[in-house]
Records
---
Amino acid sequence: MDFGLGNGNHRALALFLLVVSASVQVSIGAVYKVGDSSGWTTIGNVDYKQWAATKTFQVGDIILFVYNPQFHNVMQITHAEYKACNASSPITTHTTGNDSITITTHGHHFFLCGVPGHCQSGQKVDINVFRTSLAPTPSATPSSAPSAGTTPAPAPNDAASLHASYRLLGNLGTAFAAVVAIVCGFI
Ligand SMILES: [Cu+2]
């Protein structure tokens, strides 16, 4: 079948769609490695609060805890337990050393290391998933009310809306991939 374009154009189009589709795919369900290259540790006094503050978590994102399971673990706990570093009755416990936790709800998700002393020395993290809509929201004022007991929202909605838009585009990612397959098939 001939689209009325030269082969060169076909290839350029295919390449373009491939790149677009690939970049869109990446932004669906982002994976966040806690502590980035440091991982989940007590070494180096990683500031997990600061780490989390630089991220815009969304429902569907994956939180990845990477650590040596001989020395650490991951427990999801309540806000009160988070504040008190109380690891006596965790909601869930993860011990593989490579734990990926998919965020399925909005709001706060509190985690700590249950090894004695580790939470006290800072091995705890609060993953706060903001309630964002797919519709672009004006970013004039940080007016979205934080839920009770939370610190104020760090940044207004610019990043969040951008992220949301990507997500919307993400739904088109599969269509792009299909088009790429079709176009490539005809070259
Ligand atoms: Cu630990």
---
Amino acid sequence: MLSVESHPENARFVEQWSGEQHLRCMERNDSLHWIVEDAGVPIGYAILQGADDPGHSVLLRRIAIAGKGRGHGRGAMTLLARYCFDILRFHRLWLYVALGNRRARRLYDRLGFVEEGVARECVREGDGYASMAVLSMLEREYRQTLDARRRVQPGSGADTRGYR
Ligand SMILES: CC(C)(COP(=O)(O)OP(=O)(O)OC[C@H]1O[C@@H](n2cnc3c(N)ncnc32)[C@H](O)[C@@H]1OP(=O)(O)O)[C@@H](O)C(=O)NCCC(=O)NCCS
């Protein structure tokens, strides 16, 4: 986790934690750390927080994947969404994404996340502060996306990407 987090391609988009901070987070009852593997090889991780939220709204606190653009992020997010909505029965999955993080933004847009607004200057960046877009997906939107994908017939030319 520490090496993926601090990798130069990731460090500017995700918070940098010490091993102790990760361990403290893992001990929290409302948090889940996931290791993302490709054929048994760890390639990244994701953290969910707020699992005890009375509004059933859970935060994707972080996702970071080593080796970009191979579909691992999309695969991991698809599994995370399934876990959140089908197994844990959350109502809303939400996250912050930096305004300049085009790759992550593309991924979330493709999966059907909706922008709720911009949290202005909410995180420290160098000597100043950076703004972040707030994105979310509701359970019914997740199901609608799944249904739409299932209705698409092969050869129709419709977009079959996203949740599979
Ligand atoms: C964001 C992240 C998790 C995505 O994982 P990934 O394995 O690289 O993503 P995927 O290969 O599944 O591709 C996701 C989409 O981004 C697109 N993409 C790839 N590089 C891109 C770029 N430079 N600019 C815009 N979009 C890009 C891909 O084409 C794909 O879209 P598509 O399905 O429409 O083709 C990963 O890149 C990462 O760890 N980034 C650094 C940390 C980070 O930003 N975390 C998210 C914080 S909110």
